[in-house]
Amino acid sequence: MTYADFTLDDIAEKFGYRSRAGSLFPSLTPVDVPTWLTALLAKNTPLAFISEKSRSESIISPILTAAREVTADRLAVFSGQRLDIDPARGLTGECDFILSLAEPVTPLRSPLVTVVEAKKADIELGLGQCIAEMIGAKAFNDAAGEPGRTIYGCVTSGEVWQFLRLDINAAIQDVHRYSLAELDSILGAFVAIADADSPE
To answer: Of 91, 87, 108, whose CA–CA distance to 99 is shortest?
Structure first.
């Protein structure tokens, strides 16, 4: 079993994390969208429907790059990073993207957000995998002596973005799913995540 095999029922059975709805960003401040991102997405969006890989390259990756920019380069973006923590419990496999409050160099340090590309553009199908990766990220941080970090996750089809947060025995799914029309709020969510975990 790997991250990609998990369902929400598996998460509850194996790890005791139940899913519930909540407001993750009650005072979210939208941020200005970089002009280069707006122009790039206008060109790339027609290409995004060719395959999952093209969706990742045309929409998701540029938005995550912009998230790094609007957080003043505090978020490092790792693509295709393995997070092999506990193979016996299925906490192993390659993550689509991991965002970290660290320098963008290997080895991975301080994972903060795991981002999962929704398979077949179905957000629901990606939730189990995302929460499993969040649990893996928490275990990584615990083992690295940084147990206090709050772990977030995001499942995205490129067009729709669903954020999650790992709490004690619960995976909180944001009550709001953001569309590309709310790109300023999607970027604002990443800023809120970085700000929440940054030292004073």
So the answer is: 108
CATH value at residue 47: 3.90.1570
CB proximity list for 174: less than 8 A, separation 6 or greater:
21, 22, 23, 24, 25, 162, 163, 164, 165
pLDDT in tens, 76-123: 999 999 999 999 999 999 999 999 988 777 778 888 899 999 887 789
Is the pTM higher than 0.85? yes
**Residue 58: count of CB within 10 angstroms of its CB:** 21
Q: Which domain holds residue 156?
A: 3-197
Q: How far apart are CA 190 and CA 33, in angstroms?
A: 12
CA atoms of 149 and 172, how far apart (whole Å): 16
Q: Over the chain, what HEC string results?
A: CCHHHCCHHHHHHHHCCEEEEECCCCCCCCCCCCHHHHHHHHHHHHHHHCCHHHHHHHHHHHHHHHHHHHCCCCCEEEECCECCCEHHHCECCECCEEEECCCCCCCCCCEEEEEEECHHHCHHHHHHHHHHHHHHHHHHHHHCCCCCCCCEEEEECCCEEEEEEEECCEEEEECCCEEHHHHHHHHHHHHHHHHHHCCC
How many folded domains does the chain comprise? Answer: 1
